[in-house]
From TrEMBL:
Belongs to the DedA family. Keywords: Cell membrane, Membrane, Transmembrane, Transmembrane helix. The chain crosses the membrane at residues 21-54, 60-80, 117-136, 148-173. PANTHER family: INNER MEMBRANE PROTEIN DEDA-RELATED (PTHR30353), INNER MEMBRANE PROTEIN YABI (PTHR30353:SF15). It is a multi-pass membrane protein. The lineage of its organism: Bacteria, Pseudomonadati, Pseudomonadota, Alphaproteobacteria, Hyphomicrobiales. This is Membrane protein DedA with SNARE-associated domain.
């Protein structure tokens, strides 16, 4: 997996105009039910964030692309849960790992709309919470408000974490 992260980061470094579309696609996949279980993209997003400070890639379009991609991924997951309800448990990979959806369901029942914001920051919950919110027919607009706000914060956190790592590593290397 590390090799794929390095390949993606190297592609973005060499083709900076593609930074925002790549981040949008990665954030979408990371937030989309099923896909995020197979291809965790957060490491690549942090790596791209590290390029922002050292390569001249503009933060704002990449941040916005990450937020839009993450919000779209959650919206599609919500819609899928809303549309297919309990039938999603019969679809692979949830049919093989039913505990993933159960954790998301428990989380949504306990926390309600704030679960959308909170769940965004916890790996397996990231994709199962919006799916569960759709299954339970969480009201659309409260879901979307929490979805979009959390997506923008999540995108900023990952990108700025990577940017901070690159600044910190650069400072440490210059000090040695």
């Amino acid at each position: 997996m590390e090799a794929h992260i390095q390949d993606i980061a190297e592609f973005v470094r060499q083709h900076q105009a593609w930074a925002a579309p790549v981040v949008l696609a990665l954030a979408f996949g990371e937030s989309l039910a099923f896909v995020s279980l197979l291809v965790p993209a957060w490491g690549a997003l942090v790596a791209i964030g590290a390029l922002i400070g050292v390569s001249g890639i503009s933060f704002w379009p990449v941040w916005l692309a990450g937020g839009v991609g993450a919000a779209l991924g959650d919206w599609v997951s919500y819609w899928f849960g809303y549309r297919y309800k309990d039938n999603v448990t019969r679809i692979w990979p949830l049919s093989k790992y039913p505990g993933l959806l159960l954790r998301g369901e428990d989380f949504v029942r306990k926390w309600g709309v704030p679960s959308i914001f909170i769940g965004r920051f916890f790996g397996p919950l990231r994709a199962s919470v919006p799916l569960a919110a759709g299954i339970f027919e969480m009201p659309f607009w409260p879901f979307q408000i929490a979805n979009v706000l959390s997506a923008l914060v999540w995108s900023a956190v990952l990108l700025l974490f990577g940017d901070g790592l690159s600044i910190g590593l650069g400072w440490m290397l210059r000090s040695v």
